[in-house]
Amino acid sequence: MKFKTFIFYWLPVLLYSGLIFYLSSLSKPIPDVLLVEFSYSDKLLHIIEYFILAFLVFRLLNFYKVSKAYLYAIILTVLYGITDEIHQLFVPGRFFSVYDIMANSIGALLVFANKYFYKKN
After folding, report:
1. Cα(81)–Cα(35) distance, rounded to whole angstroms?
2. How far is CA 109 from the centre of its chain?
């Protein structure tokens, strides 16, 4: 693997997924400083967070010309979200949430929807 390929395609995925893991390892979640608090604002953060991850994974897979890169990006992102929720079972003060998995999955699926929106326009 070339160094440039690693820096531009692999490193963003590794750093971003590492950031997600780190944040979910905190006993107390970081307060929503940038968002106005409203019902389910944390779910919006999950959607955005996993949209970005799915996009980065898609970018990596697309670079390697993987057939159905969007589909694999969604699957990998959803699986990462599930394992992240399982990981939170072992973090004091955190818990497993099916609703978080749903929000993570919506974020990943929006990358696919984004593909079709821009393809039609």
Report:
1. 22
2. 10
**Closest Cα to residue 92, out of 17, 45, 46, 24?**
24
pLDDT in tens, 29-87: 666 454 556 666 789 999 999 999 999 999 999 999 999 999 999 999 999 999 999 99
In this structure, is the dihedral angle defined by the CA atoms of residues 36, 42, 48 and 53, taken in order, positive or negative?
positive
Phi, psi of 50 (to 5 degrees): -85, -20
The pLDDT, as a whole number, for residue 31 is 62
Contacts of 111 (CB under 8 A, 6+ apart): 51, 54, 55, 58, 70, 73, 74, 77
Cα–Cα distance between 59 and 62 in angstroms, integer?
5
